[in-house]
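Section 3.1: Structural characterization of target chains.
Under the original work plan, the team committed to producing a structural model for every single-chain target entering the pipeline before any wet-lab resources were allocated. The record below documents one such target. The sequence was received from the expression subgroup and is listed exactly as submitted; it comprises 365 residues.
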Amino acid sequence: MNKAEYGKKTQIIYFDTAAEAHIYAKANPGLVIKRVKDRFAAFGSYKKNMHSKITPHSILEHLDQYVVSQDLPKREIAQTLYYHYARFKNREASVFGQNLPLMLVGSTGSGKTFIMQKACEAVDLIFLHVNTANMVPDGIKGYSVDSIGSELLKLSDGGMGRLYHAVIFLDEIDKLFLDDNSDSQFGSKVAAQILRILEGGDLKVYKNDSTYTIKTDNMLFILGGAFQSIVDEKFTQKDVMGFVDNNKKEKNIAITLEDLYAYGVPKELLGRVGSVLNLSKLSKDDYLNILTKSKSTPLADFTTKIQYHGNFVDIDMNTLENIAQEAAQSDLGARGLRQILKLLFQDALFDAPSRRGVTYKIRYE
């Protein structure tokens, strides 16, 4: 540590790129940021003694570095992941009971998949994302429930204990119950087979003319969906009753188990759900925080490419605020942020490999 760093608080954090570290340090003045390339080295003794160090608080702190807003869902996810992890590490697993699946409800781009990825990263558990809308029933050629077993084997890297305690995110679950959606023509059959594994049924894995089974009773399942028609209907009901100004609609509508049952989700499936977590629509301030404070800022993906070729990026706060404002007005959620940045940076990205020492001014008026 040099003299300039003496007396300052130091954070040892894993970043994919130097640009990410630079943006994070700029948004957190007073910190000495020590970048390490190895994610596991970043945790140091924390990773060596995970059982005593991992708590709901530590998982939440990890999520807060990446996921903006969503305070209540993050808190419950952190708690659920902790007790799931504790069951994995503790021989007296029955002490902790069984974690019931969570239902994450949120519009496109609200961060359902990302928040679960980062939560699993904090406890070093296998995470598998499954798009249920593209699934077919067992026995039909295509991606089926039993295909999950093969995917888990690929991710396990020989660690069978981690495999049996994997976290499976069954996304787009709402699409299974749309009768007019051609992608969900097998919806009810797939839903029934999903219920089987939620209740502890085995997954079949076919390899080298042999059949193996993987037990699911210790896995944690997360269900996710937008259920946009429920939100739209609730808006309509409020408008009819005169409670909502059409020009100032409240963006966050809470969906309940009763709403999901009315939507068509079978009560047998809902009976397995421990909690329904509603992810809120992000505001302009949320998007600005994603750009300037989150370790997962998409801005770094663009600035890194330019800096790699020996060039520089000049992007002012007014531009960042305008980007955040447009993203907040988009229906694409956090995905819209990347689309806006792509348009703003496209000329600089094309030109940068042919230049050296150039400062590219990124402005959005």
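The mean pLDDT is 82.
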